[in-house]
Amino acid sequence: MRAAIRYTIAPLDLAGHVFAVSLTVDAPAAAGQRFLLPAWIPGSYMIREFARHIVRVRAECRGGKVALKKIDKHTWQATPCDGPLTLHYEVYAWDLSVRAAHLDQNHGFFNGSSVFLRAEGHEHLPQVVEILRPEGDAYRDWRVATALPKLKAKRYGFGSYIAADYDELIDHPVEMGTFALASFKAHGVPHDIVISGRVPNLDLPRLAVDLKKICEAQIALFEPKSKRAPMQRYVFLTLAVGDGYGGLEHRASTALICSRADLPVIGQKEMSDGYRTYLGLCSHEYFHTWNVKRIKPAAFAPYDLQVENYTSLLWLFEGFTSYYDDLMLLRAGLIDEAAYCKLLAKTINGVLRGSGRHKQSVAESSFDAWVKYYRQDENAPNAIVSYYTKGSLVALALDLHIRAHSKGKKSLDDVMRALWQRYGRDFYSVNGGRGVTEEEVETLFDQATGLTLKRTLHRFVRGTDDLPLAKLLSAFGIDWLDERKQGKPALGVRVAKEGKDCKLTHVHEGGVAHAAGLSAGDVLAALDGLRVTASNLDALLARYRVGDIVVIHAFRRDELISVTATLAADDAPQVSLTAQDKPLAARRLRAAWWK
Questions:
Q1: Looking at CB atoms within 10 Å, which of 141, 244, 419, 436 has the fewest?
Q2: In angstroms, rounded to a whole number, what is the distance separating the alpha carbons of residues 398 and 44?
Q3: CA distance 270 to 265
Q4: Is the pTM here over 0.85, yes or no?
Q5: Domains in the chain, ordered, with CATH?
């Protein structure tokens, strides 16, 4: 094998949550080798400063100590040395998420971007990593799960793995422990399901059957003729906890976290809301195999993981993925039409609830992801819109518009396939490693559909008006009903339990609480002299009518305040969608959309 960068990683202190990592460069830079750790991880657009978890680091060459100088928050430089240079360092791993690393006596997990320093100038070389088992008999049953190609390791075993370059190395998360395992093939490609954490009576066979349907539906969407997947193997890595939700995409795997109650139970055949949510999460991350891992915005080709990478296209890469995740559940036959309408309505209600949608477009939301979406505060609903949720509604509106104006001959599916063929499938050979630009996206929409969509696309993507979804859906025989005016009195707030107290987490602009002068962070004490607790606010409000005047006492920090409020009807959107059998033309359009 030609020259390579060699790593080892071992669980050093499970109770202290520390990995020991070494990195060897056979031919270090003559002027002194530099090492850098990424500041963020692709798919999670926020600077996370992973280097802050490096506890200590030292370097050696031919048995002698080599001085290291820290250049900035995530960069170290070694003094020049003649011969192989080895770095030894320790990484604190106690981030129970899909983004970094976690280690204890029950399992180990890491993303390469949080544990593997990059040897500057050697990123193009093969990267070999030796994954070591924790010491002690208690861990002899531990296994390894990763999509990283094996070198000398056995399947699911500790040992050596290899990546073609540094980018590939950090795009394969690793799970180690005593996990549940199931496998299936989707259009001939092996897929593994790995579930870590205690999950009594887990129905793995059902999960394998359901995920197979989702994966095959997505492969067929992008490659309807060949049914060829873009990877040779895929791994779903799931950590089941008491309460959790999240996912992060990778080129041949996904890291997921979910509540164990969301996973299917042996003997229970119904589709619970939690299980549907989990399947939707799997569907979302799997769709990213094409849309963002291979079809990329130009700003991500290649990634610069030391600084923010700005793009206004996350509405396409995250929003469109959010649209297709639930749609694929329907097309795979895992949910029915009524359930899909309910999921659409939930997304619509969520977007319409925040006034921030009138202040920020999805293009602006995409660009500001680094400082706004991933750093939301108590004013977020009043100031920003999600490129995930409104982006999914933009995809819905465009799909319906294309289908209606082409008389069912074209759809958003054609746009996604065109993106795949031009900017994904033959990414490196055709485009020289660059991604798609905003101008190319606009051109491609017209070319793929035969329609003139630039003005519509601009209005939906760069505008802040509400999308004409009710009108668009009606052409497909779906009735839109908003019952918000029939709502009971409400304060226009979001609350959270804080012990027995009722704390305001968000105050919606223009609502009753906002007009009365209440703020996020206030703790409600009493309403008309009756104590407010975390569990009785709705019951108290139910005794009043719209237009009644009430006195509210609350604590702001440690000071008691009193305000007078005029109760108004709950203005939270209550949209429901219902598919009708008639007219026939609308039903046929809908059938083509949902098939």
A1: 141
A2: 26
A3: 10
A4: yes
A5: 5-177 (2.60.40.3650), 179-216+226-268 (3.30.2010), 290-474 (1.10.390.10), 486-569 (2.30.42.10)
